[in-house]
């Protein structure tokens, strides 16, 4: 079975902007996500939502692309929130210590709210 290509649908009208990922986020497709993230950061979006409900697979390169988004949001004074995270990716995020930083809405963050999360 051939890998499913990644599609990224961007809805940048609401705040925060929402990116809906469908397919597989891996070494071959992670650059597409990074490109979409960069476009939104350049347009002034600091907080983003990644909807992963239709994401079928995410490898370490995909996770690195998500962390690129996390860092970009932090640098802009915003936040990256993941929704629709499946059980497999949730486990990876839990093991890496990123689950709460990326999946729990936090309207007010203190400077130490993300202790232990890479910046």
UniProtKB/TrEMBL annotation:
PROSITE patterns: STAS. Gene3D superfamilies: STAS domain (3.30.750.24). SUPFAM superfamilies: SpoIIaa-like. Residues 6-119 form the STAS domain. Pfam families: STAS_2. NCBIfam families: ant_ant_sig. Belongs to the anti-sigma-factor antagonist family. This is Anti-sigma factor antagonist.
């Amino acid at each position: 079975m051939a890998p499913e290509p990644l599609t990224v649908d961007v809805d940048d009208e609401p705040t925060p902007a929402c990116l809906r990922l469908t397919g597989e986020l891996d070494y071959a497709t992670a650059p597409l996500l990074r490109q979409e993230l960069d476009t939104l950061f350049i347009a002034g979006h600091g907080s983003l939502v990644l909807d992963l409900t239709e994401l079928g697979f995410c490898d370490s390169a995909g996770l690195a692309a998500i962390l690129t988004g996390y860092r970009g949001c932090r640098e802009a004074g915003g936040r990256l929130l993941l929704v629709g995270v499946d059980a497999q990716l949730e486990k990876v995020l839990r093991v890496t210590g990123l689950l709460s930083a990326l999946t729990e809405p936090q309207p007010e963050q203190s400077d130490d709210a993300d202790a232990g999360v890479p910046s």
